[in-house]
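Fold this: alkaline phosphatase
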Amino acid sequence: MPALALVLLAAVPAALGQTFQRLGACPDLGCVFPPDQAHFLPGQAFDVRVEIHAPVNGTEAFNGGVPDPDFSISVASNSHPDGRPLTEFFGLAEEPPLETWDFAWYEDLFARDAGNASVVNVASKAYRHLALYEPGNYTVELRYYNGTRTTLAEWFVRPLAEEKKAKNVILFIGDGMTTNMITAARLLGHKSINGKYQSRMQMDQFPILGHQMTHSVDTFITDSANSASALYSGHKGTSDSMGVYSDSSADDFDDPKVETIVEMVVRIWGSAWGAVTTAALDDATPAALTGHTRSRSNAGSLIDQALNGMTNYSWSGHPGPDVYFGGGASTFLPGPASYEGKDYYDEFRKQGYSVSWNATSLRDAPVDAPALGVFSTSHLPVWLDRNILTDNIAALETHPSGDGSAPLDLPGLKDMTLKAVVGRPLLSLSSLPFSPRSPAFPVKL
């Protein structure tokens, strides 16, 4: 008997297989985005998306595949504990239109291998460009299917800082620089005797150190898109997404958005902003500063969003970056990789930018005008290749002009950073080539 029990227990995991989620952060057949446990800064702009799911087949099949179009959503707060309809709570003039679509997913590996997709019909509404100003707790209640089902989302608005402490902020991000990478650098760079380091990394001498957990809403293994979005907005998304909570629609750009710190400081303080990277400028870490999309692969659109903001939905307008240095010329050159096939070198020039393709032109670029520097068709070569193994660069065909030559005169991270901050006056909105694309969003500070 013990042997039989052992055999049965060993067989159970093989029979279960890997299961998947119908939609990340959606606990039931009713979905609220932002989801439960979302935190906001006071005045931070965001969209709300509500979805009602009616699975047609599979283990969750419900209501004959007909989603409830008559759902209701209310919001309760410290000052309104009884709750109000969402449109009334946010002072909206009318309800947004009802949207419908369907999507398919696989419940587990067995269904995927067999090609047995589960189809889900959806009824949805999107409430655009909202904000909460009162610190405290909020409860969002979605009722559907004649009140027989309820989905709750608990939100929290952080206390408002009473004093502006920082004039300028420079955020250094080591992409993928996890604790084990920091430990490896410490071991390689600093001598240890009897377990005691004889010198310390500058990072170890910071007055304040902390950890941020940037895994996604639906997996513990993150990627640089949604982890960068967590850094810049304080909101977790699904892997590959940035600046949004991923919904189930087919459109990569209609997902409910959350405002990033760049968009907030530009809107509230009129601050200048910029990005300096050794990666491509359309790479997720720099692109997530202003990018809003379910898929980081929309590289050309992310460059357009950095320059022009999100223009296809009502959203916070912002000027282009004051400085924008890195790689990724493939999304600037006219062709299939750029947004709508446009020449984004020209698009930046039209808005008053100097354009640099090498270290020499970067040094000569004026500091009293916005500057674009693109130095490779892809990511920039690493320090070792630029300074020691220079023959490796001579063999490359990644010149930012797209002519297939080698990018021989390359700046490093230090060169680009110094050019970005030394001697450059901080420009205000009024001095940048910028005209708001939507009415000014009210700031209640």
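Confidence is low (pLDDT under 50) at residues 1-15, 427-445. The two ends are 71 Å apart (CA to CA).
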